[in-house]
Specification:
Layout lengths: L1 H22 L5 H5 L5 H14 L12 E14 L4 E8 L6 E9 L4 E10 L41 E11 L3 E9 L28 E3 L5 E5 H4 L8 E8 L6 E8 L4 E12 L2 E12 L12 H6 L4 E12 L4 E12 L19 E12 L7 E11 L9 E3 L8 E2 L1 E20 L4 E16 L2 E3 L4 E11 L1
Parallel strand pairs: 8-18
Antiparallel strand pairs: 1-2, 1-3, 1-22, 3-4, 4-5, 5-6, 6-9, 7-8, 9-10, 10-11, 11-12, 12-13, 13-14, 14-15, 15-16, 16-19, 17-19, 19-20, 20-21, 20-22
Helix pairs in contact: 1-3
């Protein structure tokens, strides 16, 4: 009996001491000595107050949630002459990242919040790898074009591009306004209902884009696969103001304007389910007249206004999933129109003069079912064409041989390019671990016309296997 009293007294003493140490203010002595009916309620209130101020939950008003994903894979590649395997690289289809998000109620109908998302953009990143660099250089965003690779032990890669930094305010009846760095409204590509985008994204260049195309004589050409593929530019992220309407009969309308008013877009999306079919669709348009401002010899903003280029792009996607059977089909079509002249925007791949208008389409189809009890298994095939992303009007585009790289030939006067991609894959969801495992194969073929003649090129094969683990 006496031992029980000592244990009980010790327990209350520890609780009281914790209140002094953690809270920084001692409880009133009357409360410490009072073991009446309101004692436990007071302690519970104090504990709840302390929990509400910890980092994992934000402050007392604004919540804080930490989420993200780790996405790493193994890449086998064959460029028609050589092949190799790169291990543990980041998959740019959906890069490793973490997010700090939060929300708070202002009124029953109005909320405010924020989104800060940081992602890996260098060091073993799939879109930056090539036959000459298995590490993926940091690139110009840190040390300039001559940035060193990571061929040394314990040399850490850069981690920290700000993908999103924005706040928002939302009214249930009026919609949401977002201010900061965020995705713009604009051209829509494939909406992934099947859950296969971790290994098979709508863009064709995010795994092998920096690899150089080989010719049939065994030379490297100055043309990379990214140069003739879609630029993965739809709904680009920038500093903007964006509006998203509330959902009305499954539809959401969005509009944004960014930079100095020279990057704007609109889009309309739909999601619904009826008669066993799940449907997602969207269409969007964007207009860009922005350009680099560090141009030598210009007198001021007036000159920049006179030289502004223009890119007009639109894209539409449709995805259908038959829920009972798991059969699905999804895809998109997008196109970009470029103004002519020497004034370049850098958007949508407009990084050379007199760029030819371009388009791309993709279709994916297969079946996704929970056959094994721990998550959906998706089996699919895909086919895509990307037309004229590397081509120029008039005399065409020139692809110089990279400086310091041997056995590379220039390709000049390119007036037509076509990238054909087909592939197959399997994705296994592990619901209990919020993880997707995948194994995908894509085959790339190039059709390039330069100087009025076809360029004989080798095909490229890529096999990727990895996992996207969400937290």
């Amino acid at each position: 009996m006496i031992g029980g009293l000592f244990k009980s007294a010790s327990r209350w003493a520890l609780v009281a001491a914790a209140g002094v140490i953690v809270g920084g203010v001692a409880m009133p002595s009357a409360k410490a000595a009072d073991l009446g009916g309101d004692c436990c309620a007071d302690l519970e209130e104090r504990v709840a107050e302390l929990e509400a101020t910890t980092a994992r939950k934000g402050n007392r008003k604004m919540s804080l949630t930490i989420t993200g994903q780790v996405h790493r894979m193994v890449l086998f590649w064959n460029d028609g002459k050589d092949s190799d395997v790169f291990y543990g690289i980041d998959n740019t289809n959906s890069s490793s990242r973490f997010s700090f998000t939060g929300a708070a109620k202002v009124t029953p109908n109005v909320s405010m919040g924020f989104d800060i998302t940081i992602e890996v953009e260098a060091g073993g990143t799939s879109s930056k790898l090539s036959q000459f660099d298995e590490d993926g250089k940091v690139g110009t965003q840190i040390n300039g074009a001559s940035a060193a690779s990571f061929n040394a032990s314990n040399v850490d890669a850069y981690f920290g591009d700000a993908r999103r930094v924005a706040w928002w305010i939302e009214d249930k009846n009026l919609g949401r306004l977002t201010v900061g760095r965020y995705e713009s409204a604009g051209a829509i590509t494939t909406i992934d209902l099947a859950g296969i985008s971790a290994g098979a994204s709508a863009s064709m260049i995010l795994v092998n884009g920096s690899f150089l195309i080989r010719d049939t004589a065994g030379n490297y050409t100055g043309v990379s696969w990214a140069a003739i593929g879609d630029p993965a530019a739809n709904q680009g992220r920038t500093e903007l103001i964006r509006y998203d309407s509330p959902t009305i009969a499954g539809f959401v309308a969005s509009a944004s304007i960014g930079e100095a008013g020279d990057y704007w877009g609109v889009m309309l999306r739909y999601a619904g389910e009826f008669s066993g079919f799940r449907v997602a669709a969207g269409i969007g348009y964007e207009n860009v007249t922005d350009r680099p401002t560090s141009v030598a010899g210009l007198a001021g903003p007036g000159d920049l206004d006179a030289l502004k280029p223009e890119v007009k792009a639109w894209g539409a996607g449709l995805s259908v999933l038959h829920v009972p059977s798991g059969l699905f089909a999804q895809g998109h079509y997008m196109a970009a129109e470029f103004s002519q002249g020497t004034s370049l925007s850098g958007y949508w791949g407009q990084n050379f003069a007199f760029k030819k208008d371009a388009n791309q389409w993709l279709i994916q189809a297969g079946i996704t079912k929970n056959w094994f009890g721990f998550g959906n298994t998706a089996l699919f095939g895909e086919y895509s064409k990307s037309n004229d992303w590397g081509a120029g009007n008039g005399l065409g585009r020139d692809f110089a041989a990279p400086v310091g790289v041997g056995n590379v030939v220039a390709v000049n006067d390119v007036t037509s390019t076509e990238l054909t991609v087909w592939g197959i894959g399997i994705t296994q969801n592990i619901d209990a671990a919020a993880t997707e495992l995948y194994l995908n194969y894509r085959h790339f073929s190039a059709d390039i016309t330069a100087g009025g003649a076809g360029v004989p090129t080798e095909d490229f094969d890529a096999v990727i296997g990895g996992a996207r683990v969400k937290f």
